[in-house]
Amino acid sequence: MVDAEIVAIGSELLTPFRQDTNSLFLTERLNAMGIEVRFKAVVGDRRADLVDAAKTALRRADLVIFMGGLGPTEDDLTRECVAEALGRRLRRDPDIIADLYKRFSKWRTGMPANNERQADVVEGAEVVPNANGSAPGQFLRVEHAGTARTVVLMPGPPHELKAMFDREVAPRLGKGRQEEFIAARELRVAMMPESLCDSRIAPIYTRYQDVETTILAGAGDISLHLRARAASLEEADRRVASLAGEIEDELEEAVYSANGEHLEQIVGYFLQLQGATLAVAESCTGGQLAKRVTSVAGSSRYFVGGAVVYSNALKTQFAGVPPELIAEHGAVSREVAASLAEGIRSRSGSTYGLGVTGIAGPAGGSEEKPVGLVYHALSDGRNTEVVERKFPGDRQRVRSWAAQQALDMLRLRLMRQ
Amino acid sequence: MVDAEIVAIGSELLTPFRQDTNSLFLTERLNAMGIEVRFKAVVGDRRADLVDAAKTALRRADLVIFMGGLGPTEDDLTRECVAEALGRRLRRDPDIIADLYKRFSKWRTGMPANNERQADVVEGAEVVPNANGSAPGQFLRVEHAGTARTVVLMPGPPHELKAMFDREVAPRLGKGRQEEFIAARELRVAMMPESLCDSRIAPIYTRYQDVETTILAGAGDISLHLRARAASLEEADRRVASLAGEIEDELEEAVYSANGEHLEQIVGYFLQLQGATLAVAESCTGGQLAKRVTSVAGSSRYFVGGAVVYSNALKTQFAGVPPELIAEHGAVSREVAASLAEGIRSRSGSTYGLGVTGIAGPAGGSEEKPVGLVYHALSDGRNTEVVERKFPGDRQRVRSWAAQQALDMLRLRLMRQ
C-alpha cells in the first residue's frame, strides 16, 4: 500500500475566504489507483514554513504531492523549498527557458526576467509538461532518509493541475505495480431523515468490513458513498455492487439513484421516457423548483415552464386559483396547493402540474401554521395528490426540503406509471 | 504575534467527499484576535498518524487547535494522542462522568460504558463546557520543548465547535495581551471581468503594504476582501476604510456593496426604500432570477412573482408576448426580451418588470445566435431598456451571469431614481 500526503501551498489558502479543493480531485484519483491519502497540509508562502511542511511530509509519506507556488513571482517558492528539504540543488533547464521565450514572443511582449525562475528544476527531477499554463511540473523518485519516496510538484490552478495529473502524473505513478484497486458507487436517497436512514442500513454496511460507507445528508437528500478496496477491480466492483444491492432492498423506492444522478435528472429521464411534460407553480420555493428542473441540459424537451406566485393576485392570474379559495383556507393550505397544481397544468397544457405553497420563514408563521409548514401538490388532470410536511431548519433549508419533496412526489408517480 | 496551527481530525476528511470547513470559521475568528494561522493539517483516525500530526504542530506553532475525535467511539483518539504527543497522562474527570450519567438518565436510557472515554482529560487541562453536545472541550497552557504553547481540543460538529469557540475558547485566548488587531471589509463588484477589475485596482492596493487584498471572482460577481493588521483596532479600521474608499473612487458604481451584501439584498433595499415592486419573466435562467430575489428574507414585501417561460406558448400566455413577434425575431431576441419585461410588468401590476431570454447551452446555439447569447430587459412602464450580452462558460455559468446582469440593470436604474 502506498501512502500519500498532499501539500497545498499559498498564503491565500490560509485566509477565511479560500480553501484548497484540488485535494478532493487528487484524493479521488489516487484512491482509484489504490493510493491512500494519510495526511493533508496547507502552508503559506513563507520559506521557513514551506521547508518545514516539505520535510514533515517527506518524513512520513511514500508519495508527496506539492500543489501551487510554481509561478514566476517572488512568492513562488515551492521549487527551492522542496530542493532544500531534499538537500538537493536546483538546475536551470535550458529547454524550459527556450519554451518560455517562445511563448512570450508569440504574445509579442518581452519576457520579464522573473519568469526564468519557472525553469528551475530539482536535481534529478523529470520535467512534466503543462498543457494549460507556463509553469511545468516536476516528478522525482528519490531515496530520502533511507526510504523510497516519490515527489511531485504541480501548479495550483485547477484546470492546469487536473489536466497535468491525468495526462502526465497518473501514468508515471502507475509504473509501479499496483497491489490494490478501489471501486466506488453513490446511492442517493430522497426524503428520509439521516438518523432513520442510518439506523436501517447500519446493520447491513457494518457487515462489509472491506467497503467504506460515507453518509452525506442534505435537505431531504442523502448520498451514500460506497468504496471497496480489493486485489482486483472485479473483486472491488463485486463487493460494492453486493452492498449496494442489499441497501436498495432495505430502503426500496426511497433510493432514487444508484449512480449518483440528482433527483432532477431522474425526474427528467422518466418524463422523457414517457413523453410527458411538466409545469410548476411555486410560492415559498420562489423559483428553486424551476431552477433545479432547468439545471439539466435538454430540460426544455419536457419542461414547459412555471410561475413563481408570491402574491395572491398572481396565484389567481397565473394558476387560476379562485380568490374565494384563498380567502377561505389561506394561501398556505392544502386546497390552494391543489389548485396551483391543477391550474398550472391546465393553463400550460402540460401532462403534470406541481404546486407548492408554504411558510419558509423567518417571519410569517403562526401557531396554527408555523414556519416550515409546506403543502405540495401533484396533478395529472384526473387526480391531485397533496402532501403536507413540516420541515426543520432556516429559510434556505425549508425551501430546499420543499423543492425536493415536490420533485420526489413526481418521481414516485412516474415510477408507478 | 501568535502563530496558530489548526488540525482537523477524522478519516472522512481524507475522502474525496468531505472537507474541513471549520477552519475557515476559526481563521476568521483568530485573525480578528490578531492570531495568524500558519499551518493547517488534516489527519485520519489512526493512532500513529494523529500522534505524528500533534507532535508536528506542537513543534512549530504557539497555539494548536485540534478539532474532532472527541466522541465516545473507538475511533475517537484525539484525547489520548494529544496526551501522548505532550508526554502527559489522561485523568478521568468525575464531574464529566456525573454529567454524562445525568444526560443519559434524562433520555431514560442506560449509558454505554464507551461514553466514559469522553471524561478523559489531559493532565493540567481545563475542561471546556459544550453547550450543544456531550463531548466537552479542553484548554491547556504548557511548556513544550522549552516554549510556551496553548493547546485547545474542540468537537468537530460545526454547531458545537462554533458555539464553544465564541463562548468559551475566545475569552480564554484573549487573556494573553493582544499586540495586533485585524480589521476586514468586503467590497462587491458587478459585471466586470476579473482581469479588468484587477488591472484597475492593482495600482491602488499594491500601495497598501499593510492591507491584504484577496480577489474572488464568480460569474459577473467579484468579492474584494480587504484585511489590515495594526497596533489598534482604530488604526486597522482606518487603513481598510482608506483603501476601500480609493477602490470605490476608481470603480465607481460597479461597486454595489461595501459590506459584503449580495446583489439581491441591495436590490431589495432599494425597492423597499422606494416602495416599488418587481416581477420577472425568465426563460434561459429558468427560475434562478426569482430564486435569488426570494432568497432574501422579507422579499415578499417587494417581489410580486414571476414566470418561468420555457415554451413559446407560455411566453405568450404569462407575459403576453405576441406569437408574431416570436415568429419574426425568434424567442431569443431583443424584441422578445423587451416584450417579456413589459408583459410581466403590466400583467402583474408591478413597478418594474425584468425579462430574460437567451441560449444557456450546451445545445441550441447557431452561428447567428451562439450559446451564451442572452438578452436582458427592464421595463418601468414608460421605458424599456435592453442589454445584449455574450457570456462565457458552461450552462450553469451562463445562467448565473444572466441572472446577475438582470439584477444589476435593476440596481443601476434604482440608484439613479
Radius of gyration of chain A (Å): 28 Å
Oligomer: homodimer
Give the tally of β-strands of chain A.
Answer: 17
Q: What is the topology, as strand order, of the major beta sheet of chain A?
A: 2-1-3-8-7-6
Instruction: Give the overall average pLDDT of chain A.
Output: 92
Give me the CATH superfamily of the largest domain in chain A. MoaB/Mog-like domain
CATH fold-level name of the largest domain in chain A: Molybdenum Cofactor Biosythetic Enzyme, Chain A
Structure description:
- 2 copies of one chain form a homodimer.
- Chain A is α/β, with parallel strands linked by helices.
- In chain A, strand 1 (2-9), helix 1 and strand 2 (35-43) form a beta-alpha-beta unit.
- In chain A, helix 2 crosses helix 3 (78-86), helix 6 (194-205) crosses helix 7 (233-251) and helix 8 (263-273) packs parallel to helix 13 (395-416).
- In chain A, 40% of the residues lie in helices and 27% in strands.
- Chain A has 3 domains: 2-174, Molybdenum Cofactor Biosythetic Enzyme, Chain A, CATH 3.40.980; 181-257, Alpha-Beta Plaits; 263-416, Maf protein, CATH 3.90.950.
- The relative contact order of chain A is 0.08.
- The first copy, chain A, has 13 helices and 17 strands.
- The first copy, chain A, starts with a strand and ends with a helix.
- In chain A, strands 2-1-3-8-7-6 form a 6-stranded mixed beta sheet, with helices on both faces.
- The model of chain A has no long low-confidence stretch (mean pLDDT 92).
- Chain A has helices at residues 22-32, 47-60, 78-86, 94-106, 158-174, 194-205, 233-251, 263-273, 288-294, 312-319, 323-329, 334-348, 395-416, and strands at residues 2-9, 35-43, 63-67, 90-92, 120-122, 126-128, 137-144, 147-154, 181-190, 211-218, 221-230, 255-257, 278-282, 303-309, 352-358, 373-379, 384-390.
- At the A-B interface, helix 1, strand 2, helix 2, strand 10 and strand 11 of A face helix 1, strand 2, helix 2, strand 10 and strand 11 of B.
- Strand 2 (35-43) of chain A pairs antiparallel with strand 2 (35-43) of chain B, so a sheet runs across the interface.
